[in-house]
Structures are given as structure tokens and as C-alpha cells.
Write a structure and sequence with these properties.
Shape: globular
CATH topology of the largest domain: Transferase(Phosphotransferase), domain 1
Helix content: 40-55%
CATH architecture of the largest domain: Orthogonal Bundle
Strand order of the largest sheet: 1-2-3-4-6-5
CATH superfamily of the largest domain: Transferase(Phosphotransferase) domain 1
Radius of gyration: 28 Å
Largest sheet: 6 strands, antiparallel
């Protein structure tokens, strides 16, 4: 394997790679066309975004997609369509500006404006206090951006909070047209394939209808507005639920009234939101501009075009949702009535039987109005995430025992409501707490449970697998390490892959360290830790200490994981 240091030579061009070479991860100094890469900014599902500079030394963001094994022609076509769609829309102030696109060797790239200190709408809602008016104004601007795209015959098809960026001036930008449909182009989607993110899909997307309209994007933006205002989704299905349950809810479950969760939402604004969430596209707004106009009227206290839901409308929706239970109740009532009139002339025995039927009817009514399991378990899901946040604060304070107790509680709450993804996150943090308390056997069991959990997210499984291998090697248990590498496939791409390869011996620690500047910032401290462990296992204690100190330096703040573990290893080295 060629040394990674050779791939980092200044000004290295993408075209230097021969067809037999494995495409390299672009690092600092890597050149694509007239652009020179500086550092990685983030990792997406298909591509990586880097900070780069053009010939005039201006900063740009460059999104790079690399051809290689496992990359289909459909993925390449979608990347090309994203570039074409974004360039068509570059003039709108609320759509992320794309300057150019190109291809050099196996590298396809899109050059965009770099928005300093930007955050996604999801992060903005978590880190800042946004009022109802602030949120509605963001959605109004995104609705106008959608109207601009729809007028140019482009459907976004993946509207969600992480695809809406908020810049340093508070202005929203719509981004990521990776699954956009250019109506004038032939479809590149296989019949029956899903496009978009299930929790924000329209019912017609969930049904994989071939013919989508602007109403599909309007529906998704309505879900974003609903969740941003209330903190919950319109359906009882939470984040982390199986895709089948999510799609079933999107297609069939009527949305709950937003004012049930936030009383400050006006009746007009609620009517606008519920109109965007109609199951039939014909009952929604005719275009995104009409949606934006109604939102503006609701903010100003003027009458909106969306009709208010009356008590009768809400009753109709509730009857539709519980139609099976209500039908059962009516049948039971009819049967009870028939029995009552049939035996009314009888004496005590008949009266007794009537009372029995009345009791059965009462029980049936009670069962019909009992809350569903998802309504009961929603508080547990909120409590689980609250326990995780409190536990992370305890970890920063070095109170590992208290943090472990809270994380175990969070995992138990999540598992009780079948939220396996949240449970896996809590278990991963719990394993780290046990390591810091020298309970290595316990940590190994927790890591193995995560790796074997088919419902855990792939990202959490990848991190758990990598940390399990590291723990096994530090314990000199090579059989455990080999089993962890053999039983679970190593990620085919992404920042965790080179770290796992380094622990498995396919990359040297020096090669991993050479790749660190090209990794997303949040993974660099973890990579330094892995390099330090690899040096430690080879007996190179000075190099190990240097890498572990880099791990501590790159942890922000320095008390965040994996800095505490790096300090523990440095203490072990000093005792050698």
C-alpha cells in the first residue's frame, strides 16, 4: 500500500491517478480543476464537502463524489442532476449558490458558496431560542425558494430540517438537491423506489407514485414547520421507528392538531399547517407561493384562505382514525340492545343477563378510548434523551459512575418503546463510562450488544465496532479483535473506515495520521486516539504519547470523549 504521505503532496492533481489506482480521499493541497482543497467540512451519504480556494484565493465549498466500487450509474446521475438543478436556481437569495461543477478522473465535484458559521435549521432550533414568528419567517422564505424552483420545473423531493441552512445573518438557504426531479429530464429512479427521508415524505412519495407534483414538496415543508413549532412530528411514530411503520403512518394516519402541543399557535396558523398536510395533493395549496402568502397573513393576524377545522371536522378525523374500534363498539351496542329487548319480559335471570351485557358494553367502550401504546410511551422517549444529555454533563465533570447509571436508565427507557437507535447511542456512551472505571469486561459486553443489534444505526455500529477492536487489542485479546472484524462488515466508506483499517493492520498509524487533515473535524480527535493506540501496540511509546496529546488538543472542550481515555493511556505509558 502506498504511503498516505505521498497522497498529500502539494498541488497533487486528481488526474494523476491511474485507472488501476484506488481513488484517494482528497486532503490538504489536493487540486480539482482550479480549486485547491484546504480541509474537510462534513460528510454526507454520497459525498464529502471540503473547504477550498479558487485561483483568486477566495474561499468556496466543494462537494466531492468519488467513483469506485459500489457506486452505481444512478448515484452518478443523481449527483449530476444535483449540480444541474442547483445551477439553474443560483439566482434565488434563499437557495445555496452553486458556482460551477466538473469532473476530473474519478472525482465529480460541485463548487458552492461557503457560508461561514452556518448551522442547519435542526441545530438552530436546538441551540437558539426561536419564536413562532422566527420559525414561520424561515419557512416563508423557503416556500418562496420552492416556488422559484417549481416555476423552473424542479422538485426538491427531500425537504427536511438538515437541508435548510441558517447563515450568520439569520437568513435561511435551501440546499442539497441530491434527489431532485428535473421534470424535463427522464426519471433516474427505479419504479417502486423511495426518494427522500421517510418521516418528511408526502403520502404519494411513501406510495412511490411515479408522478409527483409541487404539492409533495409543500407537504414536506409543512412537516418541517409542524415539528419546528411543536417539537414533535404530526404522527405518533417517533424518530428511529422502523421505516415500514413510518410509511404506514404517513400514508394513513391523520396529523394531530399543532395546538394540542403549543397553545400559542393561532387558529389561523394551525389551519394553514393542516392544509399542507392533507393526504390528497388536490386538497393542499396549489403552489408554494400560496402557502407562503397564507403564512404571512397568519403572522399579521389577517384572514387566511385555509379553512378552520370545526369541532365536527376534528370529530370526523378522530372517527376515521378509530373507525375499527368504533365499529366494534357500535356492533356491541346493537347486539346488547337486541338482547335487551329480546329478554326484557323475562324475570330475574333475564335482568341478570342484561346487566352482564351492559357491563360488556362498558368494557368495550373503555377499551376503545384507551390511549395507544405510542401515546403512552412518548414521555419515555423524551425522558431517555434528557437522561442522555444529563449523563454527558456528568461525563464532562468526570462523574463516570453517575453518568453510567443515567445512560443505563436512558437505554432501558428507549428499549421499552422499541427505539433501538437511541438505546444504542446510550449504550455506546455507557461503554465509555465503564472503561473509565476500569470495568473492561463490562465494556466489551456492551460493545458486542451494539454491534449485534440489527436495529442500531450503521454509524453507531461502526463506532462501536472500532472501539471494541481497540479495547480487545489493548487487552491483548486478538481473537476477540478478529471476531469483531470478521463478524461485522467494516464500513465501505466514511471517516470510521480508515481508523478500523488501522487497528486491523491494513493501514499504518503514520498513514492514518497523514489522512487526519482530510477527515471531518469532529472525527479528528478519534483518529488521533486510534493512531496513538496503534503506536502503543507497536511499542512506539514516544509516538503514541504525541498522538494521544493531539487527541486531547483536538477534543472540544478538552473534557469531551475521547480526551479522558487518551489521558488514561498517557498515564499507563508513563508507568512503563
Amino acid at each position: 500500500m502506498a504511503k498516505a504521505a505521498q497522497s498529500k503532496r502539494k498541488g497533487a492533481k486528481a488526474s494523476d491517478a491511474t485507472p488501476s489506482d484506488e481513488p484517494k480521499y482528497p486532503g490538504k493541497g489536493f487540486r480539482l480543476g482550479e480549486y485547491v482543497i484546504d480541509q474537510a467540512l462534513g460528510q454526507g451519504s454520497m459525498a464529502t464537502v471540503y473547504l477550498a480556494r479558487d485561483q483568486s484565493d477566495n474561499e468556496v465549498a466543494i462537494k466531492v463524489f468519488i467513483e469506485g466500487a459500489g457506486v452505481s450509474t444512478t448515484m452518478l446521475e443523481r449527483f449530476r442532476r444535483e449540480a444541474e438543478a442547483s445551477k439553474k436556481l443560483r439566482r434565488h437569495p434563499n437557495i445555496l449558490t452553486v458556482y460551477a461543477s466538473g469532473k476530473e478522473g474519478p472525482y465529480h465535484y460541485i463548487v458552492m458558496e461557503n457560508i461561514r458559521r452556518s448551522k442547519t435549521l435542526e441545530n438552530a432550533l436546538e441551540s437558539t431560542s426561536m419564536s413562532i414568528a422566527d420559525i414561520v419567517l424561515v419557512v416563508i422564505k423557503i416556500a418562496h425558494a420552492l416556488r422559484y424552483a417549481h416555476d423552473r420545473r424542479i422538485l426538491h423531493r427531500d425537504i427536511k430540517p438538515t437541508n435548510i441552512l441558517i447563515d450568520e445573518f439569520g437568513e435561511p438557504r435551501l440546499s442539497d438537491f441530491g434527489v431532485a426531479a428535473l421534470i424535463d429530464w427522464p426519471s433516474c429512479t427505479v419504479t417502486g423506489a423511495l426518494t427522500g427521508t421517510p418521516l418528511y415524505m408526502s403520502p404519494e412519495q411513501a406510495r412511490t407514485d411515479r408522478k409527483l407534483t409541487a404539492g409533495s414538496d409543500i407537504y414536506s415543508l409543512g412537516v418541517v414547520l409542524y415539528e419546528s413549532l411543536t417539537g414533535v412530528l404530526p404522527y405518533h411514530t417517533p424518530h428511529g421507528s422502523p421505516v415500514r411503520e413510518v410509511l404506514q403512518a404517513v400514508k394513513e394516519e391523520e396529523p394531530r392538531r399543532p395546538r394540542l402541543f403549543r397553545k400559542e399557535i393561532s387558529a389561523d396558523l394551525e389551519a394553514v399547517i393542516l392544509k399542507t398536510l392533507e393526504k390528497d395533493p388536490r386538497d393542499r395549496y396549489t403552489d408554494a407561493g400560496a402557502f407562503a402568502a397564507d403564512l404571512e397573513r397568519a403572522l399579521m393576524g389577517r384572514p387566511v384562505s385555509a379553512r378552520h377545522f370545526s369541532a365536527l371536522d376534528h370529530l370526523r378525523h378522530r372517527l376515521r382514525r378509530h373507525r375499527q374500534a368504533i365499529l366494534t363498539l357500535l356492533l356491541a351496542g346493537a347486539a346488547a340492545s337486541l338482547l335487551y329487548y329480546h329478554f326484557r319480559s323475562q324475570l330475574l335471570r333475564v335482568q341478570y343477563e342484561s346487566l352482564v351485557h351492559f357491563a360488556q358494553l362498558h368494557n368495550a367502550r373503555h377499551e376503545a378510548v384507551r390511549p395507544s401504546p405510542t401515546e403512552i410511551t412518548r414521555p419515555e422517549a423524551r425522558r431517555a434523551w434528557n437522561e442522555i444529555r444529563l449523563a454527558r454533563n456528568a461525563m464532562r465533570a468526570g462523574d463516570w459512575s453517575r453518568a453510567q447509571f443515567m445512560l443505563d436508565a436512558a437505554a432501558g427507557l428507549s428499549e421499552a418503546v422499541n427505539d433501538h437507535r437511541t438505546a444504542a447511542i446510550a449504550r455506546l456512551e455507557e461503554a465509555r463510562c465503564t472503561i473509565m472505571q476500569y470495568e473492561q469486561d463490562h465494556a466489551v459486553r456492551i460493545y458486542q450488544s451494539i454491534v449485534q443489534d440489527e436495529n442500531a444505526s450503521p454509524a453507531t455500529v461502526a463506532v462501536a465496532q472500532m472501539e471494541l477492536v481497540a479495547m480487545a487489542l489493548l487487552r491483548d485479546d486478538r481473537e476477540l479483535a478478529l471476531n469483531a472484524l470478521r463478524d461485522t462488515p467494516i464500513p465501505s466508506q466514511g471517516p470510521i473506515r480508515p481508523m478500523t483499517l488501522c487497528l486491523g493492520g491494513e493501514l499504518s498509524p503514520e498513514e492514518l495520521q497523514a489522512m487526519i487533515p482530510s477527515l471531518p473535524t469532529r472525527y479528528r480527535s478519534q483518529a488521533h486516539l486510534v493512531a496513538g493506540i496503534a503506536h502503543y501496540l507497536e511499542g512506539q511509546f514516544a509516538a503514541s504519547k504525541a498522538a494521544l496529546k493531539e487527541c486531547i488538543t483536538h477534543s472540544t472542550p478538552s473534557t469531551d470523549w475521547p480526551a479522558p481515555f487518551a489521558r488514561m493511556l498517557i498515564s499507563d505509558i508513563d508507568r512503563q
